[in-house]
Amino acid sequence: MPPRPRRNRPPHKAELNEAARLADRLQAAGYTKRDIARIINRDPSLVSQFYTKNKGAAFVAALRDVLTAVEAGGITDLPELTEIAARHITRRTTTSGARARVRTKAVLITPTGSGTGRVGAQAIASGSARLRPLIAEAARQGLRLAFTVRLAKTAYLRPSGSRTDSPGIRRDVIQRADHTEEHSYGSAQTGGFDAADIARRVNAAAGDVTAAMHQWLVETGRIHPDAHILHLEIRTWCPR
To answer: What pTM value is reported for the model?
Structure first.
């Protein structure tokens, strides 16, 4: 008896819609799906849906112009490609002709500037996207920011609470059974970090909060380059 055809089989290349075909050509030119998402000013998950859910028709004209700029014009700078794409990207409208509202997740920051966001392993692997709105809103309000990370104990280059690791933060380390440690950076007492600076790092990492925080930890000599963040917490407050 011949095997039954599998359902949900990924579409063959010939079945890809125009947005997916254009995205393929941009990837062949060296751009990632995350780069393409940044160019069209959308979440990376939407680019994946070009392939899985047949989406992207509204971005075809923008992607064509971007591809022409890359292949014929030799333009490679992402901000410049974003400007080119923006000429063709408009907000959706309702049946009455009004601009449709963009669905966004609520960002909880109190009137005093206090806000907290945490992500675990699954969210971290996909770039901790849910923390990006918190950081962006904190930057918009001119808030200060601190963060806590959990990694394997052997991933750290400096002992927790030492003056070279977390100046002004002296706390006992809970020894976990899974051999991980949490290290905190910044506090209201030490002044923390300018949320706008962290937001710029996140933007430079194409919206990947995990990558931005990992890069800071590596650049400042706090963790090994091949270390993996297992837990990430962001806290904000209003500067005095």
So the answer is: 0.56
DSSP lists the bridge partners of residue 235 as 116, 146
C-alpha–C-alpha distance, residues 39 and 26, integer Å: 11
Specify the amino acid at residue 160. Answer: S
- 200 exposed, middle or buried (CB, 10 Å; 0-12, 13-18, 19+)? middle
What span, in angstroms and rounded, lies between the C-alpha atoms of 151 and 215?
Answer: 14
CA gap 126, 25 in Å, rounded: 24
Q: How far is CA 208 from the centre of its chain?
A: 2
Tens of pLDDT, residue by residue, the chain (240 residues):
455 555 544 444 558 899 999 999 999 999 999 889 889 988 888 899 999 989 999 999 999 999 998 888 888 888 889 888 988 887 655 666 665 554 444 467 888 889 888 888 878 888 888 899 999 999 999 999 999 999 999 999 988 767 788 766 655 555 677 888 888 898 888 889 999 999 999 999 999 999 999 999 999 999 999 999 999 999 999 988
Residues in the chain: 240
Q: Are 223 and 156 in contact (CB under 8 A)?
A: yes
Residues 6+ apart with CB under 8 A from 114: 235, 236, 237, 238
- Backbone phi, then psi, for 85, in 5-degree steps? -65, -35
Other Cβ atoms less than 10 A from the Cβ of 98: the count is 9
